[in-house]
Amino acid sequence: MTSQPFRIGTRGSRLALVQAHEVRARLMAAHALPEEAFEVVVISTSGDRIQDRALSEVGGKGLFTKEIEEALLDGRIDVAVHSSKDMATAVPDGLALTAFLPREDVRDVFIGRSARAIADLPHGARVGSASLRRQALLRRLRPDLDLVILRGNVQTRLQKLERGEVEGTLLALAGLNRLDAAGVAGEVLELDAFPPAPGQGAICVQQRAADARAAAMVAPLDHGETHRALLAERAFLAVLDGSCRTPIAAHARPEGDAFRFHGMILTPDGTRMHETRLELGQAEAAEGAAEAARRLVAEAGSDFFAGWFG
Ligand SMILES: NCc1[nH]cc(CCC(=O)O)c1CC(=O)O
């Protein structure tokens, strides 16, 4: 076969590259193709270039995907590899998320300079995170902490911690595992107190919706259970907002052939929280999660949401 290599688009961070190479390795195995049959194409995104502000201030999740989605639509790449967590719920016309890889650990971890665990941090210690969800959850546990925005890719954040810009930070264990860096984790956070962002820990593959060759390529990579869990979490997110301005957690945990679903919304200061827990059949999990989100909206009331945008 001398056809053009199959082009896999990705951001250029180390984590993104590891994820793209994982997809390439799985494609090679699924189709018995050599490495040369694939090309990993690095695309720089606006999200990678903005380092000093919260994503919520500069336009949210779309920043990590816009340029990559344009490359897909222009035909410069055949598929794109993303962290599902970074994907807005609205996928642009003409594109589709068609494969979700088996999910990594969904939990967050605390990494401290000297404190091993959140409870060990001294009063008023400075902790950095760019995630409104992590900030709000942390405020519930430790209202005394001085929370600041800490941005950049995983390596950059760990360097900032090492330099003493903050006493601690929170990251996804999935990313650390993929980078072989889980050793830096001080405390793995419990799912009850620290439910993950929708999509955390799951790599997804995006393609042009009408591209049958790409569909046939990636189909063997799709993990059905992870795919259904992600549809549920993203349906929950879509009802609630879907932007980065809002502290939202959602986790569909497989149990037998059902999901234990946990969804949570918080005010950014962490003082108010509403959560839902229910069992959902896998087949109708997305509709059930959307319904649960609508009930949470009604329960929380409009003054709760004023706090999200105020
Ligand atoms: N927003 C950055 C981002 N997107 C996905 C991950 C981790 C890997 C994953 O959730 O699959 C991270 C870093 C982090 O939150 O620690």
TrEMBL record:
<dbReference type="InterPro" id="IPR036803">
    <property type="entry name" value="Porphobilinogen_deaminase_C_sf"/>
</dbReference>
<protein>
    <recommendedName>
        <fullName>Porphobilinogen deaminase</fullName>
        <ecNumber>2.5.1.61</ecNumber>
    </recommendedName>
</protein>
<feature type="modified residue" description="S-(dipyrrolylmethanemethyl)cysteine">
    <location>
        <position position="244"/>
    </location>
</feature>
<dbReference type="Pfam" id="PF03900">
    <property type="entry name" value="Porphobil_deamC"/>
</dbReference>
<keyword id="KW-0808">Transferase</keyword>
<comment type="function">
    <text>Tetrapolymerization of the monopyrrole PBG into the hydroxymethylbilane pre-uroporphyrinogen in several discrete steps.</text>
</comment>
<dbReference type="GO" id="GO:0006782">
    <property type="term" value="P:protoporphyrinogen IX biosynthetic process"/>
</dbReference>
<dbReference type="GO" id="GO:0005737">
    <property type="term" value="C:cytoplasm"/>
</dbReference>
<keyword id="KW-0627">Porphyrin biosynthesis</keyword>
<dbReference type="InterPro" id="IPR022417">
    <property type="entry name" value="Porphobilin_deaminase_N"/>
</dbReference>
<dbReference type="InterPro" id="IPR000860">
    <property type="entry name" value="HemC"/>
</dbReference>
<dbReference type="Pfam" id="PF01379">
    <property type="entry name" value="Porphobil_deam"/>
</dbReference>
<dbReference type="GO" id="GO:0004418">
    <property type="term" value="F:hydroxymethylbilane synthase activity"/>
</dbReference>
<comment type="similarity">
    <text>Belongs to the HMBS family.</text>
</comment>
<feature type="domain" description="Porphobilinogen deaminase C-terminal">
    <location>
        <begin position="230"/>
        <end position="293"/>
    </location>
</feature>
<comment type="pathway">
    <text>Porphyrin-containing compound metabolism; protoporphyrin-IX biosynthesis; coproporphyrinogen-III from 5-aminolevulinate: step 2/4.</text>
</comment>
<feature type="domain" description="Porphobilinogen deaminase N-terminal">
    <location>
        <begin position="6"/>
        <end position="214"/>
    </location>
</feature>
<comment type="subunit">
    <text>Monomer.</text>
</comment>
<dbReference type="InterPro" id="IPR022418">
    <property type="entry name" value="Porphobilinogen_deaminase_C"/>
</dbReference>
<dbReference type="InterPro" id="IPR022419">
    <property type="entry name" value="Porphobilin_deaminase_cofac_BS"/>
</dbReference>
